[in-house]
Specification:
This protein has 308 residues and is of the alpha/beta class. The chain has helices spanning 51-70, 82-86, 90-101, 110-123, 162-169, 177-190, 192-198, 212-223, 240-252, 255-259, 271-285, 298-307; strands spanning 3-10, 15-23, 26-35, 75-80, 105-107, 132-137, 142-147, 152-158, 205-209, 235-237, 290-294. The strands form two sheets. Strands 8-7-6-9-11-10 form a six-stranded mixed β-sheet, with helices on both faces. A five-stranded mixed β-sheet has the order 3-2-1-4-5. It is globular. 45% of the residues are buried.
Length: 308
Amino acid sequence: MSKRVAVMDLGTNTFHLLIAEGTVNDYHEIIHYHEAVKLGEGGINKGYIIPEAFERGLNTMQTFQEQINTHQVQAVRAIATSALRSASNGADFIDQVKNKAGISIEIINGEQEAGFIYEGVKISGCLSAKNSLIMDIGGGSVEFILGNAEHIIWKQSFEIGAARLMDLFHRTDPIPPASIEALDLYLEDHLADLFKAVSGYHVDTLIGSSGAFETFAELAEIEKGHSFNLKTTKNYSFDHNELLIETNKLVQSSHQQRAGNKSIIPVRVDMIVVASLITRFIVQKLSITNVLMCSNSLKEGVLAEMLG
């Protein structure tokens, strides 16, 4: 029996709405809509949603509700992550969304978030029998999942998302070498659990789940004079050197250069710099040569659970 469901992924930067129907192994997207809400803007490290961001979030949820009504959805889940987890007025936002849009938001913890990301990546078919490290760089947190097509070996969420790191380290543009050094030391310190967890395993591949990795893939392909369509590119395999070249260029670029690049969506124009630095840090630290982009992430994992 095919059913029609809606999943909302309410992230720190972007709110996503995915309406799909079918079965877990054979579903089709009816709507895949996203809005740059920037819930973490101006307050991410203070643990507070500023009034403008609050308003944008509320308006977007009302728009989502209209779409859900229009498409006669049978089941709905709205999942909130790092920004709402850590905001002192997060509960107030949830209450207002319930009152004004009739949507009940579930706040999930980092462990659950990592679990959903794994399931989303798994149904895309890019896991193998060998061990991969999945990395999902969000605005508020970054999830790492070590696993293979069979099971998860280890997973953890770290509150070191791109919006947080940008606020701490990327205050002048282009980012100065001293800030890059400080960021690397910060990552070295904050990701100790990750290094310990992977130390006994051979990590064959790094899988970047959606977000910045979609931009890296598009930039690499455009550079070669190819066209790139995310709708038809679910998985993408990077040439190791090309990835390092693209991330280096982004790190050295100015805001104006990035803003003028059609391959970089507006909400990612500035955060792509710290996202590039995290990616480069992980690839070098763990000596990984195979890197993939998977366009599936948390929302497809939630979808898999709903359709399953």
